[in-house]
Structure formats: C-alpha cells, structure tokens
Amino acid sequence: MRHTISVLVENKFGVLARISGLFSARGYNIASLAVSETLDPTISCMTIVVEVQDEKILEQIKKQLNKLIDVITTIDFTKKEHVERELILVKVNYSVKDKAKLENIFDKYVGKIIQAKGNTAIIEAVGDQQQIKQLLEKLNEFGIKELIRTGRIAMAY
Amino acid sequence: MTGAEILIECLKREGVEVIFGYPGGQVLPIFDKLYDANLRFILTRHEQGAAHAADGYARATGKVGVCLATSGPGATNLTTGIANAYMDSVAMVAITGQVKSFLIGNDAFQEADVTGISRSITKHNYLVKDVKDLARITREAFHIASTGRPGPVLIDIPSDIQLAETEFIWPKEVDIRGYKPTLFGHPGQIKKAAKLIMNAKRPIIYAGGGVITSGACNELKNLVEKLQAPITWTLMGIGDFPATHKLSLGMLGMHGTAFANHAIMGSDLIIAVGARFDDRVTGRLDVFAPDAKVIHIDIDPSSISKNVRVDVPIVGDAKNILGQLVEEIKKSPDISEWLNAVEAWKKKHPLKYKDEGKIKPQYVIEQIDEATKGSAIITTEVGQNQMWAAQWYKYTLPRTFISSGGLGTMGFGFPAAMGAKVGCPDKTVIDIAGDGSIQMNIQELGTCIANKINVKVAILNNGYLGMVRQWQELFYKRRYSQVAITSPDFVKLAESYGALGIKVTKKEEVRPAIEKALKIDNTVFIDFHVEPEENVFPMVPAGEAINRIIGGLA
Q: Which CATH number describes the domain made up of A2-76?
C-alpha cells in the first residue's frame, strides 16, 4: 500500500541526504518526493510517498524519521482526513482538429493546454491520484510522448 | 578567537580531560593551539586506535570520549571506531579536519566526503561552514552524544574555518527543536506494566546496556529483589547486575547459558529494560518466548516493536521508570514454582567445560577472575575470546565489561583497554584477546608504552581465527578455509616495544603468569598457548529457536 508522509525538517544542507539515506539503507523505494520551504523559511516540508506492505515497516520508518535530529515532526496521512494533489506536465500528439476534443476533457479535469506547436501539445493538469490516473488514460488516446510529475503533496484539515 | 581556539575552549568547558588522536595537514591549526592548551592528548599509532580508545574511555567512565583526526584517510580510519560506538550507543565526539571550504568537492589532496561517509554511522554530524557556528555546534554535539540514547557525533571542520576569527560566544543552553528525548515514562503505561507483573506466574527480567548507560543498576536490583524473579542479560548488559547473585542467570542468546535461554523461552512475562531484542538474543523470532507478554522499557522509541511485538511499551530513561515501577508493584507475585523450574534448569544444564589436555581458555579466564577478585575492567576482542570472557568472568559492577557488541569489531579490545585505563588509572584493565584479533590493532602497544598506560593483554593463542573455525567445523564439514593464522613471537614483540611478554604453555604456569603480570607496573602481553580446537558452548545455531542448544556439554 502507498502511504503519504510529510516530514517537517530544518531547512539546511544535508537534510535531504539524511532522509533519503534512511530509506535507501533499508532498501525502501521512495515512490515520490516533493520538497519545499514552508511559511517559516527555517523549515522545509518533504512529502514522501512510500510503498510498504507491512504496517510494522511504516511504523519503523516513522520512528526512524523522528529519530533524526533535523526532523522536527512527521505527519502520516494514512488515517487522517486530508487532501492530496499532484501537478503533471504531459506532452501529447496534437493536431488542430484535436483541440476541441482535448478541451472537452478539461471540462471534467483541472488542466489546460499550455502550448501547442506543430504536432505536439504540452498540457498541465492538477488532481488527486485517481483524477490524474483517469486523465492519463484519456490522454493516452492521443498518444503520450512524455510525462513529468511533481510528486504528491498533502494537507490535513 | 580563531576557530581552533574556540574548539579547544569548548572542549574544556565540556569537561574534556583527554583527546585521543593523530595529527595531519588539515588539523594543523588545532594542533598548534593544542601545543599550549593544557589538555591531555594521547597520540595513538593509528586513527582507528584513537576512536576505539575514546570509546573504551567513554564506556569505562560514563563521560564523552573525544577523538581527533585529519581529513581524508585520517577521517576514514576513524570510521570503524565510530560505527562501533554507534552500534553500542556510546557517547563520543569525533572531530575531523577537512580541506579548505572553497576546495570541498574539488578532489583536493586528502579530501573525503566525511559527513557523507559517516551519516549512517553517527547519531548526528556537522560540516562547519562558518566559524560563527562552531561554538554552538560543539555544544550541540556534546549534548546529542551524551543524552537520550547516546551515540557518536562527528564535527568536520575545514582548515580555513579553524583559522578564521570571530567573537567567542558560549551558548548557555542547547535547544534543538527536533531533539527532545523522552525521559519520564508514561504513568499509565507504568501502571499497566505493574499490573502485568503482579499477575505474572513466570516472569523474567531481561536487561541490556541501557541500564548501565542510564545508571539504573540500583533500581534494577530493587526490582529483581522485590519480585524475587530471575534475571538474564545481554552481552551489553553484563555488569547490570552481579553475576554472583542467586537470581542471576547470566547472559542469554547464542552463547548464553542454557538455563537463561530455557527460562526466557518458558516465561510468561518478559520485562525488557534497555535491551533491543537483537537477533543474537532472540534466535528464530517466530518461536521466541511463545507464551510471554512483553514489557519493554527503552529510551529509543525505534527499538520498541522493531523485532518482537511488545504489549506494554514504556519510552523513557530506565532509572526513572524502574524507580516508579517498583513503587507501583504493590504485591509481588507468588512465583515459587517458577523459581523451582529455573533452579532445575540451572542444575541440569550448568555452564561447564572439560578441563583436560592442553590449557583451556575457559580456565585462563577463571584464573584471571580469581586473581583479580572479579573487580578488573575486562575488555575483549571479538570471537571466541569475547564469548569466553563473557561466560567465565564473574562481573559484579557496571562498566567493567567493555566489548564490541553490535558491530563485532576485531581489534577493538586493545585500544579500548587503553582508553579505559586512561579514564580509570586506578583500575586493573585486562584485554582478553585472540591471536587473530590482537594483530588487528597491535600497533597501539607503542601508544601504551609512550604514555605509560599499563594494560594487560591475555592472548588466548590457538593458532586459529577461532570462532570462524568453530562455524566451519560445525556447519561446513570441518573444511577449514583461511582460518589458520600465524603470529609473531608475542614475547619478543612486546619486548621490542618496551613491554613485558610472558609465554605460557602449561596449565600450572597460568596462575603465576597472571599474578606476575598484575604485579608489574608495565604493559604485559601474556601469550597463553591454549587448546587449538576448543569450541564455545553452549551454542544456538544462527536462525534456530533459542532453546535449540547444541554442544555435548550444554
């Protein structure tokens, strides 16, 4: 199961290496990672999505994260009411006749064509896991040439 | 003040009495200031020796051990010692020089990414990028190293920072928002634990190194005596509780006593204090102590429910928690039947060896125990020597058994003995070594002689890397692959350094040699030629249930 964890850390060099090292040393793969400064510029927020089968391993990960001196707090969204979003950029095959069809898709999903040139269009879209998945299925009909995802960010109520 | 002066002022204010280390190009400014700093410095013969000596000093005294080395190879040579301290939760501050800030990352001469290399073997580490941070960082380093679950902290200081000047400001307090160890146990959890204890029929206390770190030996003794329950301990927990006490079962685990292993397997309640259910202790996990509920007292939340499922976790300092727990236990459970069963195991499976033929290593240790009346500080190397030293010496005091538990570092014992002797000059310090291990840091003989640090080294010389040979004998059909090892003439070697060497080949020479070594005011190597193929028993094969004990004598 995929779990989303946010880690508030000191905004200093080397902290990302400590966090990622903790995962890599135990052979856990990070599915996605988003890092940025918070309202307080001395604190960074790292949102980590990790795939673990066992609750026990998730518990160990959280404890190990908390053990790091530079970690201020961790938030596990697994059992928390929260919203999650991810931004994607998608390069798809494009011709002028597709424009209406594409724009039609964005009635249902949050996204738009940022740039269309020749036979290629770049699309940006935002959504939760499910929405992004469905949108990508739809865009697949046009032929996806390239995909970049920011990784998930999350916020609890 | 310059960075180097600030560092030395900070060390003094932290109460540092001695630094173990080695100079080099990128620590020249520090060594220049050490020249007139009035701080004791022990120049080792290898940086690994410095790290282990600082470790041994810390374990023997309970203070923070400090080691110092230059950049690149100096720092990488420290790393085994740092990893060793990390695995055994030893308070240590390691200071390394680094190439000048503006050269970092340029593959400069003697450059290594030391904060990167040491990240996973330190509790925390720092690369100092501004001299203004140095006092705060040093203060934090000592605080982090010595509080909570202790561990090594490394400070990497580029040489230009050592020379840079700033005003010295000593931070009054340390406040790290991400680091606030829990010291007091949750009262509700302590009540729950007390309830389990009062209803237990077959309780056992399982104590680890955390008891010594916390200074909780008296509180532990109060608990044992209130419950009149049997107690067993880990390798790191040796010295938690007097081995001579009638309720003591000795060490458990792979080479623990058979009765300790049977007792923990048959228990219905394990009271774990400052121990982490290591694989060498639990054996096969899914069949470990099947009927037992578990109370786990530990200062490190990540130790709890890591290996064994815990019923009542109590996070905090063992001394505080044990004190409160004893008060919460209103009436001791009636466990006389259980004690009879434990007593029967003790009678049926005593710790023993066949004392015949050549000198038996166990006999040597028994003789050392008698000659020192169980009051010496014993350090060990790793392997058979370590297990025999754990089994056959009767430790009654904390901080008298110093051994590489978690990492299992051969070559640890001799420099650790040196550090222990520096910290406790009035104590007799003996390294129980093997002929293999002693050769891994034998260069420290030079350090002992030059600094008049008189330690005794008992080499159990069997011509083999004994523990590996034992495994090859038992599990690899006696195919002895690269385990026969030659040694120099240890007597001549000791003499060449200015130490005394004694060779012992007959049983009747054992005790007189020990007595002689103890009397002489010098470092002594005693080369005991022992039975070459003696095995450490009892033994539980790796990955087996902890009561599946092999060895004819077990």
A: 3.30.70.260
Task: Give residue limits of the domains in chain A.
Answer: 2-76, 82-156
CATH code of the domain made up of B187-348 = 3.40.50.1220
Query: What is the Cα–Cα distance from B408 to B255, expressed in whole angstroms?
Result: 14
DSSP B2: B
Residue B553 has pLDDT above 80, yes or no: no
Write the CB contacts of B166 (distance below 8 Å, at least 6 apart in sequence): B1, B3, B6, B131, B132, B134
Average pLDDT of the residues of chain B: 97
pLDDT at B552 over 60: no
β-sheet bridge partners, residue B94: B67, B154
* Percent of chain B whose pLDDT exceeds 90: 97
User: Helices B217-227 & B318-328, crossing angle to 10 degrees?
Assistant: 20
- Contact list in B for residue A68 (CB cut-off 8 A) is 178
Residue B253 distance to chain A (closest CA, Å): 24
What average pLDDT does range B528-547 have in this prediction?
A: 94
Quick: pLDDT tens for A64-81: 999 999 999 999 998 899
> Taking a C-beta distance cutoff of 8 angstroms, is the pair B243, B325 a contact?
no
- Asked if B123 contacts B155 with a C-beta cutoff of 8 angstroms, the reply is no
Instruction: Reply yes or no on whether the pLDDT at B255 is more than 90.
Output: yes
CATH code of the domain made up of A82-156:
3.30.70.1150
Q: What is the mean pLDDT of residues A87-110?
A: 91
**% residues pLDDT > 90 (chain A):** 82
Rounded distance, CA B181 to CA B166, Å?
A: 32
Q: What whole-number distance in Å separates Cα of residue B474 and Cα of residue B352?
A: 19
CA B181 to chain centre: 22
Query: How far apart (Å, rounded) are the C-alpha atoms in residues A5 and A24?
Result: 16
Sequence ranges of the domains in chain B: 3-163, 187-348, 361-529
Contacts 24+ apart (CB under 8 A), A113-122: A114/A89, A118/A94, A119/A93, A119/A94, A119/A95, A120/A91, A120/A92, A120/A93, A120/A94, A120/A145, A121/A91, A121/A92, A121/A94, A122/A89, A122/A90, A122/A91
The pLDDT-based confidence of A56 (bands split at 50, 70, 90) is confident
Q: How far is A33 from chain B (nearest CA, A)?
A: 20
Q: How far apart are CA B28 and CA B45, in angstroms?
A: 18
Find the mean pLDDT for residues A44-52.
95
Determine whether the interchain pair A69/B176 forms a contact, defined as Cβ–Cβ distance below 8 Å: yes
**Does the B3-163 domain belong in CATH 3.30.70.1400?**
no
Residues of A in contact with B178 (CB under 8 A): 9-10, 68-73
Residue among A17, A64, A72 minimizing CB distance to B302: A64
Q: What is the dihedral angle through the alpha carbons of A148, A150, A151, A152, rounded to the nearest 10 degrees?
A: -130
CB contact under 8 A, B178 and A68: yes
pLDDT at residue B554, rounded to an integer: 38
Q: What is the mean pLDDT of chain A?
A: 94
Q: How far is B445 from chain A (nearest CA, A)?
A: 37
